[in-house]
Amino acid sequence: MTQTERRIYLIKELLSEQPRYAGMEIPKNEQEQKYLLRSLFNIRMPKAVSEEFLKIQDAYLKDETEKKGITELTDLQTIQDNLYLWRGDITTLRCDGIVNAANNQMLGCFCPNHGCIDNAIHTFSGVQLRLVCAELMKEQGHEEETGTAKITPAYNLPCKYVLHTVGPIIRGRLREKDNEQLASCYRSCLELAEQNGLKSIAFPCISTGEFHFPNDKAAEIAIQTVKEYRKRTDSQMEVIFNVFKETDYEIYRELLVAN
Questions:
Q1: 86: helix, coil or strand?
Q2: Helices 30-43 and 3-16 sit at what angle, rounded to 10 degrees?
Q3: Angle CA 179–182–184, to nearest 5
């Protein structure tokens, strides 16, 4: 099957699960088809799917990621010993684990085509990720607490694992509790990564953006927490600080060069 044939198949299968969209016409434009497919991935509730669907979905997603271009950890340059600063799409990074800035439900972003990292990771990992997250939440019996973390396979992403952590949401003045919870996110992910034998991990800017944590303070906490963990545990894990915006890149670069 071509990528177009796979995309049309996936759209038709996902539409068939949604009676309210019966009879919806599939756009002829490639980009509009991609928007529709991503939207359908985003709104799909966690449930089992056929082996044929998974086979075609996996081939489609892996091809899409290959087209975007995969960045190897070996392509990056350290800014300090075993510490990297990289501006790029975390869903295209090949390392042992990437961190997802999740919400308390831990099921991914249900908002069609939303620009958050949670949406991107769940989209390009595939429908398996939401299903396994739902199973973890069902087993746990309650929503994920802020500052903690869970680990899952990465499925169709270039990395091996996804570590999901829930950062604090800032409403009004920044409190010391918010700082402590954000630091806990980084510690929880590092500890969980070590427990599972990961040798490298990539962190996004947790809690900034949609969760409104001040970018400069968030970066300061991220770097400080990682360094304190490495000193306390003598960890040799390679840590990538992944940023998407130029402003965050400059903030992290200044902090890392200065310390």
A1: strand
A2: 40
A3: 110
Task: Name all contacts of 179-184 with Cβ < 8 Å and 24+ positions apart.
Answer: 179/217, 179/221, 180/147, 181/146, 181/147, 182/147, 182/206, 182/207, 182/213, 182/218, 182/221, 182/222, 183/221, 183/224, 183/225, 184/146, 184/147, 184/148
With contact defined as beta carbons under 8 Å apart, do 256 and 83 qualify?
yes
Distance CA 75, CA 92 (A): 13
Distance from C-alpha of 125 to C-alpha of 231, rounded to nearest angstrom = 33
pLDDT tens, N- to C-terminus, the chain (259 residues): 999 999 999 999 999 998 888 788 999 999 999 999 999 999 999 999 999 999 999 999 999 999 999 999 999 999 988 999 999 999 999 999 999 999 999 999 999 999 999 999 999 999 999 999 999 999 999 999 999 999 999 999 999 999 999 999 898 888 999 999 999 999 999 999 999 999 999 999 999 987 889 999 999 999 999 999 999 999 999 999 999 999 999 999 999 987 7
* 8 A C-beta contact, residue 9 and residue 26: no
Is the torsion defined by CA of 73, 79, 82, 83 positive or negative? Answer: negative
Q: How far apart are CA 95 and CA 74, in angstroms?
A: 9
Question: Distance between CA atoms of 200 and 127, rounded to whole angstroms?
Answer: 25
Three-state SS at 204 = coil
